[in-house]
Every structure is written in C-alpha cells, then in structure tokens.
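Archive transcription. Copying these from loose printouts into the bound notebook so they stop getting lost. Printout 1 of 2:
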Amino acid sequence: MSYVRNKVTKFQGDVSSIDGVYKTQEGKPINQLYVMKVDRIVRDEADLAYVESLVKANPSYFATYQRPELGDFLYADTNHDGNLDASDRIEIGHGTLPAFTFGASLGLRWNNFDFSMQLQGTADYKVYYNNQAFRFVTVMGQSLNKDITDNAWTPQNPYASRYPRLRNSADGRNNIASDAFVHDASYLRCKNIQLGYTVPASITSKVFIESLKVYASIDNLFTITSFPGLDPEVGATVGYPAVRQYSIGLNVSF
C-alpha cells in the first residue's frame, strides 16, 4: 500500500496558476480541481422564484453564467458576495494522483490443487470526468451515457431526476465545469484469479513427463467502483477499458 499527499512549498505566493479545471497554488496540492459548485437543479416554480429573488437583489447576478430555467443547474455563490462569477469556484481533492494505491495477493494450496488471486485498487481519488459520453448536452452523431438519458430532468420527472435537462450543445449552461463532473474514481479490481491442478507424478512419470499442471485463469473478473466512466483505472482520460479475459492452459516439464 502507498499513501501520497503533495503540497506546493514554493511557487508564486498567493498568486495561483489555473489551467482549465486545475489550480496550483503555494501551500496547496498540485493541480487541485477548481470548479463551480452546483447549488441545485431548478425543479419547479418554487426554485424559479428563488432564481428571480437573486436577480431582484442583483440584476447582474447572472452576467457571467446564463440564468437557469426549469431543469437547469443553479450554481452556488460560494463566497456569498451576492454575485455569481468565476471567483465562486471551489477547490476539490488532492491533485491528479490517488491518495491510496494498494494491492494484495492471495495463494492457497490443497493436495494437488492451487488457487491464487491478485487484487489492486485506489482510494480517496477525485477526478474530473466530462467526456466519453458523460455530459449534459446533446451532440449530433454522438452518444450519451444511458444513466444520464434515463435520469435527466424532464417535465414528467422533475423531482426524481439526478441530472439537469439535456440541452443542445449550442447551449452549454449545464455543461460548465462544476462539481457535477467530479467523481470518485476509487476502485477495487480482481486483476487475476487462477485455479490449477497438478497431475500426480505417479501418473505423469508413466508417460515420461516430469510435471503437468492444468489451469484456468480469468483476468479482470470484477471491479467494484462508483465511477460512471468506462474504467476507473483509466480514469478521466480517453482510453480503452480493461477487458475480461478467460484462458485455460497446460504447464508441462519433461
């Protein structure tokens, strides 16, 4: 098991460097996530009335981020200055590396049978995931995550929805970099599991074989994770997920 924490000890004092959704500042982790915070989905007339009250208090409240309508995200004024802008972004996580990385191996032997299992995983790992069909806009010719399409806000499903209304990509008000796209990429994966049987020497010696082992093996048998992407091991990058592979084989020595 390994544990990683990082902190910038010398950079630009209180001046930060922001690159997309990542922020680096002295005294804080390298490439810490820096995004807007979602206050709520505007689900009904009561939420619309709340939006209107924000505008009445400050007519320029939505000058930076477009005013939400039914089904849209309402982002939070986290610094409570009565204005919604980029200064309301929040810092999340510990950078681009998981805090914990671990692995374990298990081996058992009984008579001529042997069993082995290899596990690996990460913990305390936040990633920004807004690609590979996980987004809240529709794009011509491109697919969307089924969980999003099934649970997006609609007039028929205003309260049980987990995601905002799906707008065309020309209107990206719900696709702004926010904590709605920050996910826990922690996981536990069975990298390999194998069961083998070694044929007794009293049998193999009769056919001039020193040792003979028959085995069956499975790679990537299961992965336990809440990450909505294709593969938590790949994380937020665009790449192929680990595939499950089945194999049988013989180990023969003469």
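Printout 2 of 2:
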Amino acid sequence: MTAALLEIRGLGKRFGAVTALDAVDFVADRGEVHALTGANGAGKSTLMNLLAGVYAPSAGEIRIEDRPVRFESPAQARTAGVAAVYQELAVLPELTVAENIWLGREPRTRWRLLDRRALHERTARLLEEFHLPLDPASVAGSLSVAARQLVEIARALSSSARILTLDEPTAVLSAGERLRLFDTVAELKRRGLLVLFVSHRLDEVFEIADHVTVLRNGRRVFDAATADVTRAELVRHMVGHDVDDRTRADRFEPCGSPSMSITVRTRPAPLGLQLERGEIVGLGGLVGAGRTRLARRLAGLEEGVAVDYRIGERRFTVRSAVQAIAQGIVYLTEDRKRDGLFAGLSVLRNTSAATLASLSRLGFVDSREERRRVGPVLERLKLVAASLRIPVRFLSGGNQQKVLFGRALLARPLLLICDEPTRGIDVGAREEIYALIDTLSREGVTIVLISSDLKELLALCHRILVVRDAAIVAELPASASELDIVDAAVVRAPRPAR
C-alpha cells in the first residue's frame, strides 16, 4: 500500500512557557483538499508555519511519502515540495506577474542579464497549464486581491509544489472571486496536489474540502471526512460546546428617546438617514457597492464630505474623524491590521488610542488612569491576553477585534459603525461579538452594521438598507430573505418611505 503524501506524528511547538501545539497527528494524501479549522489561537497558524519551515518543531515529526523531514527554513520546505500562501500576501506591487512568480529564479542570458522573453514564455506556459487567468506582463499593483492571490499560487506551483497551504484565502474576496479560486483549487486537486485549506468559514469547508481536522487549544480534537460530519458537530468541536443558529426574533421597539437624523452632503443630491436609538441597521449589498464608503462618510473619514446630525434639539456637523469621535460617532474599520491597530504598541495603548486626550496632562499620559479605564472594558469583553503590555500583534484575530471594540466603548459611542466586525475570527469569538452588539443595542447605542455574510445581517439587524453606488436603493425588514437582499442589490428598487 502506498504511503500517504503527508503524515504528522505527535507534532508539538513551544514558545518559552507557552505550548502552541501539543502532540498533533493527522494524515493527508494526494489529490485531496484537507481543511484545517478551529478557534483563533487553536494552533492552525503554528502548524502551517511548521510545515512551511518558518518554525522548527519542539516535538514530533513531519513525514512526506513516509520519509521524515525537518525544515530549518522556508527554502528547505519549498525544495521538498511544500509551499504556503498566507492571508497577508507577499506580492511586490511594482513588479509584473512574471517577475513576482520567478523572483530570485529568473532566467538569465549568457551575460547574466534578465532574459525577458524566456521569462514571459515560461510564465505563459505555467499559467496555461494550470488555467490561471493572469497576464504575465501585468503589473501586480494593478491587480485585484484575488488576482494577486493567484500570483502567489502560481509562484508556489512554479517550484513544483506537491503540498500547498492556503491560509484564510477567501477573507477579502467577493463571491465571484471566491468561486474562481475554488475552480483553481479543484484543478490543483485533479492534478494530484494536496491542498491544506485553513478557514473559519464552515460553508466553504463543506463546499470544497474532502476531509476536515479541528484544532482546539493546540490539540487535535476531531478528524473526519466532511461527508460524515454536520456543521453543528464541527462548531461544537471548535468551541467545546453547542452554538445555536441565531435569528432576529424580536421586533425593534423605539425606546422613546430622540431619533437620529443624518444628512450626508453628497452630489448631485444629499443622502438622508433616520436611525432610532438602540436600533441595529444593516448595510447590505454586493462587494464594491459602496457600503464602506458610506460608512466612512458617516464617521467623517472622507475628505470634503460634511455630514449633518440632529438628535432631538441637538445639532452638529462632522467633517473629520476627530469631530466625529468627539460627538460619539465611532467607526470600526473592516481592516484591523491596516487601518485599526498599531501593531507594535501594547494592548493597553491600542485600546486607549481614541481617548488619549482625556487621559493626558501637560502632554503626558496618566498611566494609572489609563489602566483604570481600560481594564474593566477589556474584562467586560473577555479579552484573552497574557498581559495588557504585550504588543497587540501577538493576540489572535478575535482578541484583536475585542481591542478595537474596547477602544470604541471608551469613546462612549452614540452611533457605532461596525464594518465587517467578525471577519477573520472564529465561531466562538463571533458569538461573543454578536452578544456584545445586542447588549450595546439594549443599552441605547445605535449601530450601523456592514457584513458580507447575509445570514449575519439577517440574524443581527432590525432592518437592512441595501446599498448600491454608495446610495441606499432599498429598505428591508428583518424578516427579509437572503434572496431579497441580493435582488434589491442587483435590481434598483425604489426605497420605501418610513
């Protein structure tokens, strides 16, 4: 009997006193899509980094075709046929597709100059062989995120990879881009590659994976063919308990406080919104519809656009983020790593970042007062961190998101704008975020929620505004269906009067 392509035996990794991976076993073979899932901090990234040669294991072994291997560097892993495509893409925007694929391995002339003709021909053959829709001469910086991801995959295939790891590959892709990626993965599977697919999105696991392994707290807790397991079972293994599917059963009842009237001064016509105190209003629509642009306008983040607010007798205009925060209008970015977090600063300072002025005297931060305010907020959010003084980059995605929520809560928001608040976080952390949003709503915070997950919108929101071209084209109740949202997003419909 032929040995499996990849076998993991008792693999472990320690970082000082912290055990990130503990005696993990699993087997995966050629022509298979093997999903690896689990909560943030479960050990998925550590396992992928051990396979890719980023780390050396503290215990156990990796076997390829029944031969033990030990990688001291990513280059050694690539030589053995293991390639990784990470969520944070490493494509160089100034170079062409061809130059990115063969970076460091470019064909040379006899005079050691770059042979551009050979480079283009070699790239064209590779892209044609694997049916990758890319132009070798395109500059990478002009490509979509999905296309740049294909460049990374092509780079891996150019090194004769037999094992390809994809880390959260669909996190920022549209539905169409996701389908094209899945077509590519299916082609790689037909060609006998082993694809290790890391994802929090269980619908994708069931759509594309043949087998699934679940990690929890650094240990393998479940392993099965996807055909033999249900979504509820996977969720239970991921978080350690049952999680019920959410539905928005309650009907929103205004609490009697003044409503919030908003006018966004856009051309050719202004855009108006009416929000009730404590209401959760979703912004639905297709990727590229302008939901984030509208949300950023509300928070004073688009230069040259003024927004007029009226809350009862109180009136004010927002032209900048500083003015918005001062008035209780807080925006949670969809891209926490690029726009939200200061990676090198502590958890404490990241949480207090929006309210440092109120914590400072004569230009110096009152550290004692900072800890006094931040501590209870992060405790409420059930933040898991070894210390508030460690850099925020060392936290899991779910805990990083909690830091952003903590920053928002310290600003005492009247209107909290959440842009993709559960992107890239696990099922357990997602449930905690849902519970927090519900709690804030009951406490009187008005929430505008953007999500590409239509089920999430329907489960959380009291009503949904469908956006196209940064304008509202329809208004739907919480009882609407996913099809209703898509229909309204594709076919311009009149917005019903409230």
